[in-house]
Amino acid sequence: MLEPSLINETAELVSQNFSADEIDRIGGMLIKGYSSHNICGEAEHITFSSGKASRILISYMNSKRKTFDLLKLLIELDGSSLSGKPIALKGLEEYLNKLTRTGVVYDFHKRKIHHSRKDVENLVNWGALKEGKYYGFTIISLDIVGNSKLVKAHGLKKMEKVYFHLRQFITNKVYEYDGRIWSFAGDGGIIAFTAKGNEQRAVLCALDIQSSLPVFNLRPEIPIKDKIILRLGLDCGKFRFSMDTGHIVSDAINYAAHLEKSGTEPGQISISSRVKKELNAKMGKYFPNPFEFESERSFTSCL
Predict the structure, then answer these.
(1) CB–CB of 141/256 below 8 Å?
(2) Collapsed DSSP state (helix, strand, coil) of residue 100
(3) Other beta carbons within 10 Å of 73
(4) Mean pLDDT of all residues in 253-270
(5) What b/e string do you get for 154-170 counting C-beta neighbours within 10 Å, with b at 16 or more?
(6) Which of 29, 220, 257, 268 is 20 to 30 Å from 116 by CA-CA measure?
(7) For residue 103, what pLDDT is reported?
(8) How many other CB atoms sit within 10 Å of the CB of residue 176?
(9) Is the per-residue pLDDT at 56 higher than 80?
(10) Where are the beta strands (DSSP E) in 21-170?
(11) Residues 6 or more apart whose Cβ sits within 8 Å of residue 175
């Protein structure tokens, strides 16, 4: 069974993409002779809105324990056709994102639905993104300042303990803002955000990481006295997604990485103008300092 809020979300997804007649055809793919009119006892000549037809469909499939069969069918209809009409489901990725957060995940490779919250946060595609499709992302590139000097001063063994605790710290912050760690190599990595409001969530995450870092440095389990200092660079853009995130080619990833490494002061955050324009005035005030980097206008924080 779906959570009550997702029942409404599912009905909305269906109603905004299909007519009442098409909804009946979808029902017929799962249950022979399906008819929304027969189910609610209405005469066939009465016209149903797509909203009413979708609510009847969801309710009926729930009662027959075929809700997840319906979800699987809807997901697989995307990119195919229904009665000769090409289907491109608007709002599918956002819906799948919400579905994943409840522990229901569609595996695009195995074409199966999994009902478990376990490891949902480890899915680099949020359980929603399709291989080879284009999506909008905001990227954070993150790096420890002076990592080589720290390794030289404390030894690799101690620093590996620091890396372990740092990754846990970063992971908790990232998932709080519905981001995903795409790569992490001890002293830094690439973090991605997608779906509605991804730019704002990425910036909030970056600010949270930097503002919480002093507390991280005070933890007794951190085996060095030197403070860990980070710098972060952010850019956003639309690019082709791959489950093999290490091989994604993107100007946004490249610019974020270059901006972080060569354009950002220790302990600060730099964002591209593309990210800045997506922020509200309150958030934008944290990035008052414009500068030119690689022939583009960027902004740095005032932390």
Answers:
(1) yes
(2) helix
(3) 15
(4) 98
(5) beeeebeebbeebeebb
(6) 29
(7) 75
(8) 12
(9) yes
(10) 81-82, 85-86, 104-107, 112-115, 134-144
(11) 121
CA distance 112 to 132: 19
pLDDT tens for each residue of 268-283: 999 999 999 999 999 9
First-last CA distance in the chain: 46
Angle between helices 20-30 and 50-63 (to 10 degrees): 20
As a whole number of angstroms, the distance between CA 243 and CA 140 comes to: 18
The mean pLDDT of the chain is 92
Instruction: Find the angle CA(247)-CA(194)-CA(274) to the nearest 5 degrees.
Output: 90
Instruction: Read off the pLDDT band of 1 (50, 70, 90).
Output: low
Beta bridge partners of 138: 193, 236
DSSP 111-134: TEEEE--TTGGG-TTTTTPPTT-E
Structure tokens at 10: 């599912």
Those residues whose C-beta lies under 8 Å from the C-beta of residue 58, and which sit 6 or more positions away, are 7, 10, 11, 14, 67, 70
To which residue do tokens 């620091």 refer? 162
How many CB atoms are located within 10 Å of the residue 57 CB? 26
pTM equals 0.73
Residue 274's alpha-carbon distances to 205, 255, 257, 298, in angstroms, are 17, 11, 15, 9
